[in-house]
Design brief:
Layout lengths: L38 E10 L4 E9 L5 E10 L7 H4 L6 E7 L2 E6 L8 E6 L4 H6 L5 E6 L1 H14 L5 H7 L10 E3 L6 E5 L12 E6 L15 H19 L6 E6 L8 E6 L12 E3 H10 L3 H4 L2 E6 L3 H8 L4
Helix pairs in contact: 5-6
The chain binds 5-[(1S)-1-(3-chlorophenyl)ethoxy]quinazoline-2,4-diamine (DD3).
5-[(1S)-1-(3-chlorophenyl)ethoxy]quinazoline-2,4-diamine binds next to strand 6 and strand 9.
């Protein structure tokens, strides 16, 4: 495997802010930013009443005349203690729905400022993005070491998953002002940054990602004892930086990697332990502390072990496992 001694070269990143960065809501409006002019709802890809989320496929008409796809993710945000006084006061717009004995239900209409909807935009979106959010049946795959060599690795090689947005963060071409902590070493360094699924308004759903500076570790499968200093740095400095910034002790953090990850550049998730973050299921999340111990037991642990994960029905990787008679 290649050594991480210098900044790896890649295609020159676009300087323009990705449209998704506008989802932050804090940035002032600038030309080229996404808005709902010429937006047309195509269909709902997925919705979840418990999570209060909806994933929408839409079409956007360009000024030039062509029409492009967009994926819009809407999510109602958690309540915040410091805004409750604005919801519960004598001027509140409260409408009685029904009353029975000591029980009554109402509709409360808060001011727009206290009723925001977190909005994530992928634009222009590819067919892959649209499919990714479609509700689908899942299949568990037990990937042996041989399976990884014969099926998964060649498949990943043949794909052109873009991690340009990751390189933009590492090179400070995007989100530079959002960085919480950096260890700049090209081999053992990383950047800690809020995942953009987190609006940073409350720590209940805290979610940060540590992105390694090293560019040749694609996933958990590539990790060896050689990466222990990197992993230990991420664990210790990540915990410390989160305590300094958010006053959340390490006992309140779930720190883990995904396998399969949603992007093939080594990253570690830091989420609030009380928050049931998407992707914390046993078949996907691998605690960083366990990963470190496993590598201390056996430097090639993750090259040898069978790893289990779930794939969606139409995932091309699932098709490969089927073709090889492994499902
Ligand atoms: C992504 C995984 C990727 C859709 C969605 C998310 N955190 C990101 C770009 C910038 C970011 C992330 C791809 C893409 Cl909803 C398609 O995530 C990102 N910046 N997770 C941050 N801070």
């Amino acid at each position: 495997m290649a050594e991480c001694v210098s900044e790896a070269s890649g295609p020159e990143p676009k300087r323009r802010k990705p449209a998704a960065a506008a989802a932050d809501g804090d940035a002032p409006c600038e030309p080229g930013e996404f808005n709902f002019d010429n937006f047309q709802l195509e269909r709902i890809l997925r919705e979840n009443a418990r999570d209060k989320t909806v994933f929408i496929h839409g079409k956007v008409g360009e000024d030039g005349g062509d029409v492009r796809d967009a994926v819009i993710i809407l999510e109602k945000t958690p309540f915040r203690e410091n805004t409750l006084p604005q919801l519960l006061n004598k001027n509140a717009d409260l409408h009685l729905q029904m009353k029975n004995d000591i029980y009554s239900t109402h509709h409360l209409h808060p001011l727009p400022a206290f009723n925001e909807i977190k909005t994530t935009v992928i634009y222009p979106a590819t067919e892959k993005h649209i499919k990714k959010y479609l509700q689908q049946q899942m299949y568990l795959v037990n990937e042996t070491a041989d399976d990884y060599r014969n099926i998964t690795a060649p498949y990943l090689q043949s794909q052109t998953f873009s991690v340009q947005w990751v390189y933009n963060i590492l090179e400070k071409k995007a989100e530079a002002e959002r960085i919480i902590h950096e260890h700049p070493d090209p081999k053992n360094g990383f950047i800690l940054i809020p995942d953009f699924k987190w609006n940073q308004k409350q720590v209940d759903d805290l979610h940060l990602i540590a992105i390694s500076h090293c560019r040749d570790v694609k996933s958990l499968r590539d990790l060896t004892a050689e990466h222990l200093p990197l992993l230990q740095t991420i664990l210790q400095e990540g915990q410390m930086a989160i305590f300094k910034r958010y006053n959340i002790p390490k006992s309140q953090l779930r720190i883990y990697l995904h396998y399969q990850p949603s992007y093939y550049h080594l990253h570690v998730h830091f989420t609030a332990v009380g928050y049931d973050a998407p992707g914390s299921m046993v078949e996907r999340a691998h605690l960083l502390s366990s990963v470190i111990e496993n590598l201390q037991f056996d430097p090639e642990y993750y090259q040898k072990r069978t790893l289990t994960f779930a794939l969606k029905a139409d995932d091309p990787l699932l098709q490969k496992f089927k073709e090889e008679g492994r499902i």
